[in-house]
Amino acid sequence: MPLITEVLAVQILAASRSAPTCDERNVALKCVLDLVGAAIAGRDMPGPAAVRASAHTLMGAGASSVWATGHTASLAGALFANASAASALDLDDGHRLARGHPGAAVIPTVLTLLAETNAGAGDLIAAISVGYDIGVRIASAQMPNTIATRQTGRWASVAAAAAGARLLRLREDHVAQALAIAAVLAPNQQANGSSGYSRLTGNDVKEGIGWSAVLGLVAVHLAIEGHTGPADVFDHPDYYNRQAILAGLGGRSHLVDTYFKPYACCRYIHAALDAFLMLAEGNSIGAEDITGVDVETFGWALKLGNKRRPATLVDIQYSLPYCIAIAAVEGRDALAPLAPALIGRDDLSAFCDRVRLSINDEMDALFPGETLARVTISTPSVSLRSEILRPLGDPKRPMSFEVIEEKFLRVTRRVLAPERQHEIIGGVLDIPDDHGSGLLMALR
Questions:
Q1: Which tens digit of pLDDT belongs to each residue from 90-111?
Q2: How far apart (Å, rounded) are the C-alpha atoms in residues 321 and 109?
Q3: How far apart are CA 10 and CA 343, in angstroms?
Q4: Digit-coded pLDDT (tens) for 248-286
Q5: Which residues pair with 384 in a beta bridge?
Q6: Which one of 378, 391, 417, 428 has the minimum C-beta count within 10 Å?
Q7: How far is residue 113's CA from residue 119's CA, in Å, rounded to a whole number?
Q8: Helix (H) or strand (E) holding 245
Q9: Degrees (nearest 5) of the Cα angle 346, 352, 355?
Q10: SS3 for 290-319, per residue?
Q11: How far out from the chain centre does Cα 298 lie?
């Protein structure tokens, strides 16, 4: 029986012999615009700012663009900076099966490498498709008894390595070794995040996506130079489910089932926000009218930090009550992106005390395939209960390219002039014709 890394290597290279489907192309373009917007909006957060400074010191100078900053760095340094910025605000795309965020590793890897290649549009889109597909397969195959943490950094290195290997058209044996090296070098993330043992989750490490993307690129170059890893890394059923990795391989890419996020917070919060805003806006209910908000949802949403007096923007991203308070007091636009002025607001913390969370067993049973919520808003005169909702941006409740474009304009409005915003949007739309060269110029 061939090793899984070998089977995946064959499929990654097979992607170079067939054109991406229409669905793959359309979703890939949405992923690029959405992810670039998240990165630009997040570039000046403390975490990404620290990464830029450290990357220049530790990884050296170079000609690779740190997006929309006017700065350049080495290939690894620029990738570290771009991927860290992309995941800083929790605005980046995700995938339900993976329970994580492939785009923040894959898109920066592909676009940062693109300037080093003569790849065409088909290569660019195929690399994105392969990166998402392989990353989601590995993530969904993790066995929870032995790989307890579910953070994206655990598998994003493999997604980045797959995308890089496809874009660079590596030899089959090099691809297999790159996947193995990336899987072993990936950060274990046992401490951080909602499934980690640390309770202090409002920090800049988050899911380790930026560093994981760099390790994927490192794995590709190590493999090219003859470095090896344990090629049987995925062939141990106590750790990975072989069937989950290989089922449908070569067919419909998992890229097509990507979800997008209208709010800058953990996906587990989004359905509750949608339900709350639908009730409050639809019935003209202001924060001052609300005496209570009851949120029924799945168990993992209650495992978030859910701080009612958050000290950082990252704390806010993982607090369902505080995000509901922002929606009630400031409105939906304040949720994308989050602003530092939202930290330490006594009025928002006071509203949090009106928000009650509970687990709905039926919703919990559908997780992770669905992340559902239902909200009840109480006022002195009326009690309104929403239907059970899945979040906006899911494949079954999609965001069109036009809605992604509107999100891009909204989240980058504080850092980009309108003409620069439209140059970047135009660069994404022109990818099928100019192979990404216009986008790369617009991102400098």
A1: 999 999 999 999 999 999 999 9
A2: 35
A3: 49
A4: 999 999 999 999 999 999 999 999 999 999 999 999 999
A5: 377
A6: 417
A7: 10
A8: helix 242-246
A9: 165
A10: CCEEEEEECHHHHHCCCCCCCCCHHHHHCC
A11: 20
